[in-house]
Structure formats: structure tokens, C-alpha cells
Amino acid sequence: MTQKTSTFRRRAGGAVAAMALALAASVAGALPASAHTQVTPSAPEPGSTVTTGPVTVAVTATDPILESGHKGIVVKGPDDEELYYGDGCATVTNGGTLSSDVTLGEPGEYTVIWTLVAEDGHQQSSDDFEPFTFTWQPDAGEKTAPGYTEAPVCGEDAPETAPGSADESESGDTDAKDDTAESAAPDATAEGDAPAPLTENDDEWHDIGWLIAAAGIVFLAAALVVLISVRRKMLADDDETEDAPADDAAGTSTPEPTSPEPDDPDERDDNSSTGRSDGGTTPSA
Predict the structure, then answer these.
(1) Which CATH number fits domain 39-208: 3.90.1150.10, 3.40.50.300, 2.60.40.1220, 3.30.465.10?
(2) pLDDT tier at 128 (50, 70, 90 boundaries)?
(3) How many angstroms separate the CA atoms of 147 and 176, rounded?
(4) Percent of the chain with pLDDT over 70
């Protein structure tokens, strides 16, 4: 094998190794992105029964929650009714807990609906996880609130309340609004105006980013396959080059030298006479 071929093979091997490392890095970079922040209920305990209000509802994330990101909590119920409670605002505590105090309505099972943006920039919501439910069974004298016909959004005007609300519910709603206004005040002081919710364009850009990352991984994988194929072909060519001189040497033999035949008849006669004069005896007359 020539020095030039050996150098070329080393360079090709280095290129294959570099491509493999790049592919591994791309896959490793994509894995954390796919493992989004996990969020678990923290209050009240899922499936438990709550008897006093207002009810503190909270979820805890494995990664810090962005204070400036779109966030909110509302409670839906009771049972299968399309009524919503709370004002949609929520407070971040300890970096990773999102909570809100909510005054509920009639007894029954309620479902917590929440949304947040974690440190990785991905928006998470209750739709991505198992339903977070609990039972509201108020003690005597506990105040209740009328439900909204639509989910309220923090910082926006409250939707219409459900028709036919009782006087007790209206009283409870007034207190609930006062409580939620107080709980929302620290957020307004610390963050100013309520952050605008994420739009569909944000999700579209997120999806485009995933598509670009996937296309990059496919491209790197294809390039790696091509490099491996080229390297194998080079190795096969080198083996054929090394075997060729040995085959030529084995099939080639050196012919024995032969004396040239003189073309002129006179020269043949002279040579014959010379041979007789040198090697034999001349008969006497």
C-alpha cells in the first residue's frame, strides 16, 4: 500500500468518525427537547374532597416556570357542566409552582385547567396530562360563586355568568372577585400588564423548528451512510491493488537465452567449417 493511499484512508476514516459524532450530537440535542417539562398536581390532592373555600389550586413543574410566559388557572365543573370558576390569573411561587385561589359553585367534581410556559420555552397545559380532579363538598355557610359560561382570561373582562344564579352565589362571587383581585395584584405590580397569550403562530414556529431538526438528522444519517460506503469501496480497491503484483510475479517466468539462427547460408557453412576445424581432426590424404 502506498503512503498516499494510507494517508487518504486515514483522512476518510477521520471524516466518518467526525460525521458520526455530529450525528450523535444532533440526536442528543433533540432528546432533551422532546422530554418536555413534567407537571404534577400539588393542591388539592387529586381525588380528594375539599370542604372549605376559597380552594387553593396548584400544580408543580419539574423545571422553572417563566414569570413572563402565558400562564393561568381556572376550574371547571361541577361534574360535566360547562361552567368555569376563577379569574384565569395564577401566581408563580418557588420558581416551579403555579397556584390560584378559586371560589367554587355547587357541590360536585371539579377539573383543574391550567397553562404555563416552562424554562425550555414550550407551552404546557392540562390537555397534555391526565385530568386533575377533586370533589367540592362545602360545609354549611361556605360561600359559593356563579360559574362563567366561558373560561376567563387573566387581565381581560370577565365572561357572562351562568343564568339563574342564587343570591348566595352572587354574594360569594363578589367576595371571590375581591380575593382574586388581591391575588392578582402582586403579579400586576411585579410584571406590569398581563402577558399576551401565545398565538397559533408561536406553535407553528415551534413545529417548524422540529421539522428542521428532523431534516438535519436525516441528512446527517444519509451522509454517514455514503461515507461508510465510500470507505468500504476504497478498502476493496486497496486489497485488489495489493494482490495484483503478487499474481503478476507468480505467472511470469524468465525464458532461457537461445542462440540466434544465422539467416545467410554461407554463414551457416562457415560456422560449420569452423566447428570442424576447431573441434575435429582433418583426415590425411
Answers:
(1) 2.60.40.1220
(2) very high
(3) 11
(4) 54
CB atoms within 10 A of CB 268: 12
Which pLDDT score, from 0 to 100, does residue 265 have? 53
pTM here is 0.51
Instruction: Give residue for cell 466518518.
Output: 16
Please provide the DSSP assignment of 220-271 as one string.
HHHHHHHHHHHHHHHHHHHHHHHHHHHHHHHT--PPPP-PPPPS-HHHHHHH
* Strand pairing category for 84-85 and 72-76: antiparallel
**Could you tell me the residue ranges of all domains in the chain?**
39-208
pLDDT at 56: 97
Cell of 116: 404555563
Q: Sheet harboring 39-43: ordered strands across?
A: 39-43, 55-61, 97-102, 91-93
Q: Does the CA dihedral 199-201-206-210 come out positive or negative? A: positive
Report residue 218's pLDDT band, with 50, 70 and 90 as the boundaries.
Answer: confident
> What is the spatial distance between Cα 118 and Cα 116, in angstroms, rounded to a whole number?
6
Query: Which pLDDT value is given to residue 233?
Result: 79
pLDDT band at 33, cuts 50/70/90? very low
Residue 50 contacts residue 137 (beta carbons within 8 Å): yes
Classified as helix, coil or strand, 174 is helix
101/59 Cα distance (integer angstroms): 12
Phi, psi of 34 (to 5 degrees): -75, -25
